[in-house]
Amino acid sequence: MILVTGASGTVGRPLVELLVSAGLKVRAVARNPSALPRSVEVVDRPVLEGVTGLFVNPRAVGDDIDGLLAEGKGVLKRVVVLSAVNVDDDLDMQPSRWRGDRNTEVERAVTASGLDWVALRPTTFAANAFGLWAEQIQHGDTVRGSYAEATWSPIHELDLAEVALHAFLDDGLLGTRPVLTGPESLTQREMVSAIGDAMGRELTYLEMAPEVARAALVGRGFPAGFAAGLLSLQARSVGVPALITNEVRRALGRPALTFARWASDNAYVFGRAA
Ligand SMILES: NC(=O)c1ccc[n+]([C@@H]2O[C@H](COP(=O)([O-])OP(=O)(O)OC[C@H]3O[C@@H](n4cnc5c(N)ncnc54)[C@H](OP(=O)(O)O)[C@@H]3O)[C@@H](O)[C@H]2O)c1
C-alpha cells in the first residue's frame, strides 16, 4: 500500500488516481476527503500500518517528517519526496519558505533516513497560474502582473504525478534527485497568452511596477517575504531562458507536456470562453 500525504494537493490528487489505476492500494492523507476518489481510504493523519511506499509532500508533512520516517523504519520499502529545484539555493532564494514549506530539511531527512528514496526536484508548477492570474482572467482580458518577461519552464502536474508513480514502480530513479521541468522556457506574457489561446480569447499582459506588484501580492494575503522573494526571482530571470532538463522524458519515455496542453486541460477554471 502507498500512503500519499498532501493527497488533495496539486500533485497528490493526480498521483492518487494514477496509483489506483495501476492497481495499487492507496491510503490518502487529506483534511477534506471529498476531493478524492471514493475507492480510496482517506485518513486525516499518516497511518503507516500496512504501508510499503510513502509519498511525502513537505507542505503537508512539515516538521513531522522525522517522526514519520522513524516510525517507517523496517516498514517502508520506498519513500518518494516532492522536493524542489531550488533546495540547494540560499534559503532567501526559496520564497516558499515564507509560506512554511521546508523542502530542504524534508528532502534531507528523507535522503538521510536509511530507507530507499527518490527526491523529485520540480521547477515551478504550471498550476501556479491559477493563483497568479485566474481571478483576473475570470473578469476580463487584461492581466496585470509583475515582470512580463520573467521566464519559467512550468511543469504539468500530470508529468509530476506520472514520474512519482514511476518512482514507486521502477528502481531506475532510486537514490536520485531528478530536476523536473517543462519542455520550454516561456515568459509570463507568453504563459498568459497561451491561456488565452486555450480559451479562444486574446489576453493582454500589463506589467506593473515591482512595488505595485509586491503590494498587490501582500494585499491578497501572501507573506511580504514571499512576495519580495518571488519578485526577486522573477527580476533575475528576465532575459535568461529558464532551465530545461530531459528528466521527464528519461523517466517516462515521452516529452514533458507543454504549457499549451496544461492551459487546454485547465481552461475551464479560468472562466468564460470567447
Ligand atoms: N508550487 C510550485 O511551483 C512548487 C514547485 C516546486 C516545489 N513545490 C513544493 O511542493 C510542495 C507542494 O506545493 P503545492 O504548491 O503543490 O501545494 P499543494 O500540494 O497543492 O497543497 C498543499 C497540500 O498540503 C496539504 N496541507 C497544507 N497544509 C497542511 C497542514 N498544515 N497539514 C496537513 N496538510 C496540509 C493540503 O491539504 P488541504 O487540501 O487539506 O489544505 C494540500 O493537500 C511544497 O512543499 C512546495 O514548496 C512547489
Give the helix/strand layout:
Elements: E1 2-4, H1 12-21, E2 26-29, E3 41-43, E4 53-56, H2 58-61, H3 65-72, E5 78-82, H4 103-111, E6 117-122, H5 128-139, E7 142-145, E8 151-152, H6 157-169, E9 179-180, E10 186-187, H7 188-199, E11 204-207, H8 210-219, H9 224-237, H10 247-252, H11 259-266
Helix pairs in contact: 1-6, 7-11, 8-9
NADP nicotinamide-adenine-dinucleotide phosphate binds next to α2.
Structure in a nutshell:
By secondary structure, this protein is an alpha/beta fold.
Feature tags:
single chain; 274 residues; alpha/beta; Rossmann fold; 7-stranded parallel beta sheet; two-stranded parallel sheet; 11 helices; 11 strands; binds NADP nicotinamide-adenine-dinucleotide phosphate
